[in-house]
Amino acid sequence: MNELRTELKELLDTARSVRPPALRRSLRDDALYATDLPAAAEAETVEAFLRAAGNAGWTARQEAGWIELDKAVRRQPAGGFRGPYGPEAACLLHLLRRHRPAVPSPEAEEAAAAAARRLIKAGEAGPEAYEKACAQLHTEWAVRLRTGVLLPDLDDSFFTCEA
Fold it and tell me: What's phi and psi for 141, nearest 5 deg?
């Protein structure tokens, strides 16, 4: 379990609820995790959780009975995916090292956040999902390079144990 999931689990463990709330990878591209705490707890408990999560640096929004949670991540979280890395991850590492932007644009920053979310969630799903996510990013980054758009400034820790 990575440090991000652990942090949220600890916050949820302090919430009084009729049953343990679910915590899962978000199905949305713009969030890392989701919890069904609103279905398991009173409104004041949900509000207390949202305040605590916000104080811990999480952005949260309630939607359709779930709370979608996201946090800005610059590196692979402790306890996150650490391999085995396949050829697609190696290609991404090579592309980043060769084409890393000197000064990232705001659009490249958002692309880095989106890529980090995708890789963290794929890493939790296992090596095959991680390699598949890397292959999708490889395709997207090739298009970015061909069209002159900066690559996301993603940390090497997403592609190697050495970083």
Answer: -70, -30
